[in-house]
Every structure is written in structure tokens, then in C-alpha cells.
Amino acid sequence: MSLIDIGANLTHESFRADFDAVLERARAQGVAQILVTGASVGGSRAARELARTHPGFLHATAGVHPHHAHEYDDATDALIRELVQAPEVKAVGETGLDYFRNFSPHTAQIAAFEKQLAIAIDCGKPLFLHQRDAHADFIACLDNVRDRIGATVVHCFTGTRAELTAYLDRGFFIGITGWICDERRGAHLRELVRLIPADRLMIETDAPYLLPRDLRPKPSHRRNEPMYLAHVCAAVAAARGETPAAVAAASFATARRFFGLP
Questions:
Q1: Would you list the domain boundaries of the chain?
Q2: pTM higher than 0.85 for the full model?
Q3: In CATH, what number does 3-259 get?
Q4: For 77-99, how does the pLDDT look when each residue is reduced to its tens digit (9 = 90+)?
Q5: CA distance 58 to 49
């Protein structure tokens, strides 16, 4: 059973001490390829370098997360445009809107999001998107360029049925994380994940965040890592009434096609 983790923040400092071991554990659990998320200027540069150092296994995205939108300037825009030209960089993002944390003003978030949508239009690469508590503005931004953007995935989907329907109606892909394993916050996802067509469903860890709550035995730490993607796959399969092998095969094929992976 081969898996692709479409979103892992492997540039995070928590991976520095045992990075190679993290990759080996992932391989041992069937993870064949990982998309390293670029969510800031420094993180996007580092994601590209990791992908260059581990060709074929690691790939990268390049973008600026809404938390960092207040830092987005002309130099940032030029750098992201440069990074997305690299063959190792498979998508534009992580970008989008986050009105839950509000680490950047809404106007700054929208402006940075729109600039990165323009980058995706110009380079022709897929979009790797984040949305939390900002659905109306998020959809409005996307609808403004709907006929010009390419393949789009809303990663780490945790929203409502109405939000999911809006994304699916627009042809977007959906990324599901270990949030589905959380009996407190993720119960609704076990119902909604059944609505996602198999050819538009992908899975991810969002490591080091979102460690599945139902891991047994519980790890002594709170750091998530790509090796747990198999656990996410099993949870998604159980919710959909499918086998883990079926979810793995479908999500693997979808991710390969979506990101243009070798």
C-alpha cells in the first residue's frame, strides 16, 4: 500500500534533530512521496531545498500563509514567482484566508491571496489552499478568477457541509488530515468525507500539527509526522465504508495526477 502525504511542514524546527529518521519511518509505513509545504518566504525556500536534496521522494509548494500576509510585499511576490518556476515546486501555496487566528488583518490577507492567485494563473501550477472561518471572502476571491485558475485543493478541510458542497461544485479537490480522528472536533468529518468523490480526495498529515488523537499507544510527544498518514488513511476508509487499500490507491492516483508527480 503506497501513500502520498500532500501536506507536511517538514521545514519546522521540531524535525531538525531527527529529520532523516522521520523520512525513514515514513517510508517504512508506506509513504512513497511527500509534499513539503511552503508557508512563508523562508519556509518556501527551505521546502524547495529539501525537495532538491531528496529528489523523487520530497516535492515542495511555495507560498505565503495568511498568518504571514502582513509581510507580503513586492520582494515576496518576486521570490514566490521565482520559486514556482523550479521543477521541484509542484503548487502555489499554502495561501488563503484565516479569520480564526487573525494574525494578519483581513485586508492584508485578501491582498496576499489575490497576488498568489495571480501567480498560479501565470505559472499554470495547482493551488494549495487554506481556509478557516473565512469562507465567504475565500470563495469570492476564487470566483473572481474561477475561469483562469487550474487545479485547486482545499487542504486540511474541517468545514461545514455547505462549504464542502461549494468546493465540490467548483471542481476543487479536498485534503483530509488527522482532524477526522478527533472525537471532539472531527466527528462531522466522518459524515462529510463520504460525499467527496474518490478522484477528488487526498490525504495528508499537516505534520508536525494535528497528531491523530486516537493513536494507540499514545506517543509520548505531540509532534505529528508523515509515518502516521497510514492511520489517517484507515480513519478515512472507515468513515467511507471502504478498505484502507482502496482509499490509499485512489488518493495516491489523485495526488500523482494533481501535482504532476513523477
A1: 3-259
A2: yes
A3: 3.20.20.140
A4: 999 999 999 999 999 999 999 99
A5: 10
